[in-house]
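Sequence only, no structure available. Ideas?
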Amino acid sequence: MEPGNQTTISEFTLLGLSEEEELQPLLFWVFLSLYLVTFIGNLLVTLAIITDSHLHMPMYFFLSNLSFADICFTSTTIPKMLVNIQTQSKVITYAGCLTQMYFFMLFGGLDNFLLTVMAYDRFVAICHPLHYTVIMNPTFCGILLLASWLLSVLDALLHCLMVLQLSFCTELEIPHFYCELNQVIQLACSNTFLNNLVIYLASGLVGIIPLTGILFSYSKIVTCILRISSAGSRYKAFSTCRSHLSVVSLFYGMGLGVCLSSASFQNSRASAIVSVMYTVVTPMLNPFIYSLRNKDIKQALQKLHRHLECH
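Reply:
I predicted one. Tokens follow.
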């Protein structure tokens, strides 16, 4: 690309999910509803865990952080999309785009690591129940949370610093409703080999390694459960994993769907539509999965509801 086609950019254009004017009001109310359900649902789970002393244990400590991460994850993309629809503007500044990318990758990665830590927590609880309180002590739980944050921050920061090194062309339209890393890199005029290499390597850190840890934990859990002689005890042990297993399946299933759609559709807006399931629907369903399948969370939510009614 000739130097004349490069420029100091100040903004990108987010094409969104549809350019049809008549669909914009519908998209606005649908995504506003999804966002409010996600925000309120995860906030209630977080408050229920914080206010109920019976839930002050490692599993729920990590769940409250997962709910907080889900609130932040959706808040990085949906509010900007709603503002763009309402103002009939598709523009996002260069700084705004980088900021959105950073926090999207940060909280997406944090979700990943927290799910892995929660799988390890279930592994210790089922396979080493007598040593559970010793192993999963408050200090160790704090270290696991801090490590999850640190790895997520470093991963997001690395990608954003790599993007800062790129030169961009005059064609700055992103066929998405947020600044997705791959889409932004594809708009660059300069060589993106190093960026793509970092993406592949980082995918192993925040994707493959955590998933391997989850699969390893559950292989050990299944082995331990099968050794239990009583059918009732086996069911009770497995029931403590059901909610987490459902969330993990949803998270990685949707993530895989987005990856496959990106490979199939390339720059098509169809890829953006598929990614809605991963970026919006999954965080929205998580509190429902935990509240419907977990008796302790149900009771905590009922207590919180009564407490709010009294005030």
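Residues 193-227 form the longest helix (35 residues).
Hope that gets you unstuck.
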